[in-house]
Amino acid sequence: AAGNYNIKVRLQADPTCMATYAQNPVVLNAPTGCCTPPTVNAPTVTQPTCATPTGTIVVNATGNGTLEYSVDNGATWQASNTFANLAAGNYNIKVRLQADPTCMATYAQNPVVLNAPTGCCTPPTVNAPTVTQPSCTVPTGTIVVNATGNGTLEYSVDNGATWQASSTFANLAAGNYNIKVRLQADPTCMAAYANNPVVINNAGGQIYNGNVAFYTQAQVNAWSNCIVTVNGSVTIAGFGITDLSPLMNIMTITGNLTIQSTGLTNLNGLNSLTTLGGNLTVLLNNNLLSLNGLNSLGTVSGSLLVYYNFLLSDCCAIRNLVNGGTAGTVFIFFNKTGCNSVAEINANCGGTTILAPPAGSQAASLSQRSVEKEIELFPNPTNGEFTLKMNAPFETGTVRIMDWSGRTIYRQTLKGSTSGQQFSMTKWGAGMYLVEVRLDGEVFTKRLVVK
């Protein structure tokens, strides 16, 4: 070691016979400019995860003076011992003295390995879809989902309710569609299209001029879904008619709508109808259970007649129409309980929304009193002649007689008397008729049968 040394020499045979070096001491100096490498201990490693896909290495080392650190085998150096945002891979640690960059040490257990996380979801990327809108010749639309992702993808346009392997969805009806895409290998790894919903528009925009009558399902099926307005009246009558979905795009009927003697159980297919310029008549539909399908109809400019539908108990679709949405008279009777009167509809449908009557309306204030106590028709059935008798005094009154379709065939002002007044039906022939009597603002109706 460095220090002072005093030299002596003696005889082996006579250890007392010795001599001392005249220039003692001999000095060994300590070396200068020598490297004492740092000590590199095990690093602190944070592996990548699905939530944080990069890792961190904290180099643990000691040494004389300020240190510098590298994890790329000395290619680059930094003053901090923390290396963050590292991708998965192998890293070789070195540490050196800042004052003597040639004085360095390598971690004995190199390389330090950052493992890629497993089982992680990288959601697909959903781009703008390719949309083909319906036309008059092709009444349905198509959506092609455009997406990329790791592995095989599956696609949905109903917000994930159903999935398919093909990205093409054809034969789509008008409506809103919500696109989602998922990994087939990991169904929980999915992404939604940022600009949902994708809208498929109604085909059409055409106007049909004239009256329309459907007597068979084939005639209904042949209807063009390009037509949104019927400039006339529509009659639907035929026991074989069970589906109105081909009429889905009709929004306006300027005349009357009559639905009579069909095999329908509901009126779905008329869901787009919002405006009716004449009477709405629904009668003698023996299978009809509900008026669902008329929910969008905001106003009826004529009268509303719903009667002799003996299984019909759900009239909630016309709740607003019977509470001010009808310009003419409202006739609701001889249906099933729940749909026999305005009061039953309101009770059955959980309240009402009172609407302002349509422009030009003369909507009647309907009495809930019994017709039997206010007016009498006799004989009924009749061979042609009948008597109308009022059972209570009145000041002003009118009588109106309508045929089975709701068309007014006779109107007369009544005299202020309770005595009977004579009427003749021979001009109009046999059939069923409605007799509407207005007495001092109240309305009463009775059925009249002419043999």
Name the features:
rod-shaped; 24 nucleotide stem-loop, u2 snrnp hairpin iv. U2 a', Chain A; six-stranded parallel beta sheet; 451 residues; 4 domains
Structural class: mainly beta
Please name the CATH architecture of the largest domain. Alpha-Beta Horseshoe
Going across the biggest sheet, name each strand in turn. 22-24-26-28-30-31
What percentage of the residues does DSSP assign to strands (E)? 35-45%
In round numbers, the mean pLDDT is 88
Could you state the CATH homologous superfamily of the largest domain? Receptor L-domain
Structure overview:
Strand 10 (94-97) and strand 11 form a beta hairpin. The chain has four domains: 39-114; 125-200; 206-348, Receptor L-domain (24 nucleotide stem-loop, u2 snrnp hairpin iv. U2 a', Chain A, Alpha-Beta Horseshoe); 375-450, Sandwich (Immunoglobulin-like), CATH 2.60.40. The longest helix has 7 residues, at 342-348. The protein is 4% helix and 38% strand.
